[in-house]
Amino acid sequence: MEKEEGFALREWRRLNALRLEEKEKEEKEMVQQILEAAEQYKAEFYSKRNVTIENNKKLNREKEKFFLENQEKFYAEADKNNWKAIAELIPREVPVIENRGNKKKTATITVIQGPKPGKPTDLSRMRQVLTKLKHNPPTHMKPKLPSPSGADPNVSVSEQVTVTEKL
């Protein structure tokens, strides 16, 4: 019986070694396939990334040109009407994106990003304060009244009154 067990054990070890070799070959093939798929994924990722970067560069250049044109117009009009210029800086509405079922409504105006990503900043309080300042400006912001004709703008009103009394 010992000879038979020895033969059976040797046969099992031989078959087991063959199975292990086949299994090892299959694993190497699978690893090779995974590596090839990973290389292909990386190549696709970087090509998409380069396309996205180029598109973003173009968009940023266009936005910069538009911004510079608007900035020139803004500064040209800012001296004439301060409050109109200030009102242009603040958007009138903040977009609201609603989810109703599977339909997603997108905003029609540019989202001003807040401190949290993806959440727009609420500018209603800022608009409210600026409107209040527009209607009731503090004394240092009130426009200066034009001086009487012939008066020197560098001379105070009390000095002007004494000069006119002497005449």
TrEMBL record:
<dbReference type="GO" id="GO:0005198">
    <property type="term" value="F:structural molecule activity"/>
</dbReference>
<feature type="coiled-coil region">
    <location>
        <begin position="17"/>
        <end position="44"/>
    </location>
</feature>
<comment type="similarity">
    <text>Belongs to the clathrin light chain family.</text>
</comment>
<dbReference type="GO" id="GO:0030130">
    <property type="term" value="C:clathrin coat of trans-Golgi network vesicle"/>
</dbReference>
<dbReference type="InterPro" id="IPR000996">
    <property type="entry name" value="Clathrin_L-chain"/>
</dbReference>
<keyword id="KW-0175">Coiled coil</keyword>
<dbReference type="GO" id="GO:0030132">
    <property type="term" value="C:clathrin coat of coated pit"/>
</dbReference>
<feature type="compositionally biased region" description="Basic residues">
    <location>
        <begin position="133"/>
        <end position="143"/>
    </location>
</feature>
<dbReference type="GO" id="GO:0006886">
    <property type="term" value="P:intracellular protein transport"/>
</dbReference>
<dbReference type="Pfam" id="PF01086">
    <property type="entry name" value="Clathrin_lg_ch"/>
</dbReference>
<protein>
    <recommendedName>
        <fullName>Clathrin light chain</fullName>
    </recommendedName>
</protein>
<feature type="compositionally biased region" description="Polar residues">
    <location>
        <begin position="155"/>
        <end position="167"/>
    </location>
</feature>
<dbReference type="GO" id="GO:0016192">
    <property type="term" value="P:vesicle-mediated transport"/>
</dbReference>
<keyword id="KW-0168">Coated pit</keyword>
<comment type="function">
    <text>Clathrin is the major protein of the polyhedral coat of coated pits and vesicles.</text>
</comment>
<keyword id="KW-0472">Membrane</keyword>
<feature type="region of interest" description="Disordered">
    <location>
        <begin position="133"/>
        <end position="167"/>
    </location>
</feature>
<keyword id="KW-0968">Cytoplasmic vesicle</keyword>
